[in-house]
Write a structure and sequence with these properties.
The structure is a homodimer. Chain A has a domain at 53-182: Orthogonal Bundle (Tetracycline Repressor, domain 2), CATH 1.10.357.10. Helix content of chain A is 74%, strand content 0%. Chain A has helices at 5-20, 27-34, 38-44, 48-73, 77-83, 85-93, 100-106, 113-137, 145-164, 169-182. By secondary structure, chain A is mainly alpha-helical. In chain A, 45% of the residues are buried. The first copy, chain A, has ten helices and no strands. The structure holds a DNA duplex.
DNA sequence: CTGTCCCTACCTGTCAATTGGTAGGGAGCG
DNA sequence: CGCTCCCTACCAATTGACAGGTAGGGACAG
């Protein structure tokens, strides 16, 4: 097969979790989408918690790739910062989905520990990248960079959440514009 | 009884939904908390969708009261804006819970239409209040007030989400500080 | 004052569907 | 043979929902 079942399971689980969260994942629906039987998923993932953790981990690993791609393609750090909101915009474009880890942040209380860890890692890699680029761009000093990075990350997650609740990408774009106008993001 | 069963159901459902979302609501657990049987809830709410809509509606109605209280107690609109983040902070203080409607915004795809309506109403009343106070404070003109209000609302919702995923109120406070430093919120 | 009627506020019992998870088997490959 | 990959056939628990019953109280006619 061109893609293994394990990869297909991860891909389908990612799509589902971005629309319905961790609690919205279930083995039968997932198996149908992949074209195998529910019990077969247990061959690759011993439990739902393991699957959830694997999906969340793969999710932030993919985001790291995207961030590195932006850095590689845009030598100008300001240009990188301009492109950053596009990552979250993509989820909305893709069937009004949202960031897996934002959804799971809401589900925090019901998440297995292994999944919580990966959700936090997602925020960490985003904040790390943002902090680095903010310093390069000279937007803030190294002391404030992490706080500002967190603020940008949280604000964009909130914008995505609000836009999703109206199924309105233009609302997302407007919020990003407002963040720039207000001074949270560079112009 | 001092409080009717209907009110007790609404209160318990609110507490649960703020921690586990709409999908986390279930009639048996709810009934146990109230001290009645699951079937009895149907006497007050014909379906889970009706219960969800009633809880979300009550939620934003209570927020309207809180906002009016802030306006009444603080003649200075800047002081009102300073106090606004406290509303979302309270949820975190209360067992690391989060805004009911932020949670439900994530669950958007699985929400009955009646519930969606109330979730959007929550955002509307917040944005309306913020927009009004922003104008009074002279932070922005009447043209930009709604956009800025939405930006503040979304950013604070995002801050709450991020703080919840770490069960860390200090993180929330830090984010609000950063919003002020960056110019999104008035100093 | 009394019997009838209907309402509110619950209850017991049950159902069908969905869920995460398990036991054990089989086909094919090295 | 042993390993990978996937299957059939289950199970127990949970869930939203429903049917039908009952205790108590108020209203009101006779």
């Amino acid at each position: 097969m061109s893609t293994s079942s394990k990869e297909a399971i991860l891909a389908a689980a990612k799509r589902t979790a971005m629309a319905h969260g961790y609690s919205g994942l279930n083995f039968r629906t997932l198996a149908d989408e992949v074209g195998i039987k529910a019990a077969s998923i247990y061959h690759y993932f011993p439990s739902k918690a393991d699957l959830g953790a694997a999906v969340a981990k793969r999710y932030w690993e993919d985001i790291v790739d995207d961030l590195e791609a932006i850095s590689a393609e845009s030598p100008d750090p300001i240009r990188c910062l301009h492109r950053y909101p596009g990552i979250f915009r993509t989820s909305l474009e893709n069937g009004n989905r949202m960031c897996l880890c934002s959804f799971m942040a809401a589900e925090y209380d019901d998440l297995p520990d292994a999944v919580k860890t990966e959700v936090q890692a997602f925020a960490d890699v985003n904040v790390a990248w943002l902090g680095r680029v903010l310093i390069e761009a000279g937007v803030v000093g190294s002391v404030e960079s992490e706080n500002r990075a967190r603020a940008i990350f949280a604000a964009i997650a909130g914008a995505q959440l609000m836009a999703r609740s109206r199924a309105d990408i233009a609302l997302y774009d407007g919020l990003i514009d407002s963040y720039r106008l207000a001074g949270l993001l560079p112009r």
